[in-house]
Amino acid sequence: GAVVSQHPSWVICKSGTSVKIECRSLDFQATTMFWYRQFPKQSLMLMATSNEGSKATYEQGVEKDKFLINHASLTLSTLTVTSAHPEDSSFYICSASVAGGRTDTQYFGPGTRLTVL
Amino acid sequence: TQLLEQSPQFLSIQEGENLTVYCNSSSVFSSLQWYRQEPGEGPVLLVTVVTGGEVKKLKRLTFQFGDARKDSSLHITAAQPGDTGLYLCAGLPVYQFYFGTGTSLTVIP
Q1: How far apart are alpha carbons A24 and A78 in whole angstroms?
Q2: Phi-psi region of B102 (alpha: psi -120 to 50; beta: other; left: phi over 0)
Q3: Whose CB has fewer CB within 10 Å in chain B, the N or C terminal residue?
Q4: Which residue in B43, B97, B102 is closest to A42 by CB distance?
Q5: How far lies A103's CA from each of A1, A100, B68, in Å?
Q6: How much is the average pLDDT of A49-68?
Q7: Residue B27: its pLDDT value, please?
Q8: Distance separating alpha carbons of residues B56 and B107, to the nearest angstrom
Q9: Contact at 8 Å (CB) between B35 and B49?
Q10: What is the pLDDT of residue A102?
Q11: Cβ separation B42–A111 shorter than 8 A
């Protein structure tokens, strides 16, 4: 089946540093990848949609200069949280779509827990 | 704007009890999905319903899609501690994908 991995699974960093999270589709090529943010016991909030080779589309209220997304290949997308602060602490989840749209089946990664001290 | 409202938001029940989770919207969806998420993990797809009025059963879980394709319900029979988790519905109108507000279920042994 389609497997999506994320690395790291958890990260703790100091305020002001930047953190990079990787999302990989292991056994399929993903035209589109999605990044979500989730707070404890709450639903997933879509942050941005990234298509291979083009700029990411950010949801309203998400700072594109704060959350840098790069989708360099059909199997890898990265989310960089720049100058992280404690309020950026959250669970970040990516998903990958096989056919390329949000209406197609999405396969979710296991998530990355970010804690900013 | 949250298109899909789930109720209840939190639910704590004893093992063996039955429960129903609702997913409601004023929008029409081409299909609707239900996911279950355990703490520290990504969501796992349980079912996709595509036809108005459709009922799907997955062991002790019964999913129903409303006739007008605006709402859905998840019924769990004889809940077990292993059912504990966050249940999310997700609606798929054309070119969009929205998660519901979520229902956190705790089944007490």
Answers
A1: 9
A2: left
A3: N
A4: B102
A5: 19, 8, 19
A6: 90
A7: 86
A8: 23
A9: no
A10: 53
A11: yes
| pLDDT one-digit tens code per residue, A16-53 | 999 999 999 998 888 889 999 999 888 999 999 988 88
Tell me the residue type at B9.
Q
B40 DSSP assignment: T
B65: how many CB neighbours lie within 10 A of its CB?
24
Residue B46 structure tokens? 């349980």
Residue-wise pLDDT for B96-106, tens only, equals 677 899 999 99
The pLDDT tens digits of the residues spanning B57-69 come to 999 999 999 999 9
Burial A59-93, CB ≥16 within 10 A → b, else e: eeebeeeebbbebeebbebbbebeebeeebbbbbb
pLDDT digits (tens, 9 = 90+) for A74-84: 899 999 999 99
Q: What tokens does A104 get?
A: 């197609």
Residue type, A73: S
Residue of B nearest to A112 (CA): B40
